[in-house]
UniProtKB/TrEMBL annotation:
This is Uncharacterized protein. The chain crosses the membrane at residues 38-63, 75-96, 102-129, 149-166, 172-192. The keyword Transmembrane helix applies. The keyword Transmembrane applies. Keywords: Membrane, Transmembrane, Transmembrane helix.
């Protein structure tokens, strides 16, 4: 995930797990030539960062949910966040830019990515509550089917909010994590329970 650019470029920054927009991104190239002790230090910093992100979102969802999360589900969630965080750090996080010269391509790409993001929106909370990864994926998919437009609007709002807050001077990145992360976490719990009720009645 990269920080949003300035000027006329509009960027949507979104991750499948609750977090904000980071201020810096380390790629694998940046770590290859580091001395061993610096490499270990950088690795520890990344480990602390992803642990803090996962713990913060887990605690928020625990607070917002009436259901207790199992140790197995919590473990799977932390591992999943770690895997997505690693993917993000090597430069493949969801980050779309739009400019007047590539509007059609941008809109098409946005549609594809938003479709995937909508179908996997409930994956973080489903990992905590469902018996396995495949069950979590199926649940996330089924509960999002009838609510695509609402979830897409929420995803774009979260992405724009994270990017806009991250651009603020000095405290932008902290604000992005402090505001967008909890909002995302609470939205996961509330909508997961609400859409469960609607799927049962439909």
């Amino acid at each position: 995930m990269r920080r949003p650019g300035s000027g006329s470029t509009l960027q949507v920054v979104y991750t499948p797990y609750p977090t904000g927009a980071p201020g810096t991104v380390r790629t694998l190239d940046a770590l290859v030539d580091l001395p061993a002790e610096v490499f270990v230090y950088a690795l520890m910093v990344e480990l602390v960062a992803v642990s803090a992100v996962a713990a913060a979102s887990w605690l928020t969802m625990t607070w917002a949910s009436d259901v207790s999360f199992s140790p197995h589900g919590s473990f799977v969630y932390f591992v999943g966040v770690g895997g997505l965080y690693l993917t993000e750090r090597v430069g493949t996080a969801i980050s779309l830019e739009y400019s007047p010269g590539s509007l059609l391509v941008g809109v098409t790409a946005l549609g594809i990515v938003v479709f995937i993001a909508v179908r996997t929106f409930f994956l973080p909370i489903a990992l905590l509550l469902e018996p396995g990864i495949l069950a979590a994926i199926r649940t996330s998919w089924s509960r999002s089917v009838s609510h695509g437009f609402a979830l897409a609007a929420l995803i774009v709002t979260l992405g724009l909010g994270a990017g806009w807050l991250a651009e603020l001077p000095a405290v932008g990145v902290l604000l992005s994590a402090a505001v967008v992360g909890p909002v995302h976490s609470v939205a996961l719990v509330v909508l997961y329970e609400r859409y469960s009720d609607s799927s049962v009645t439909s």
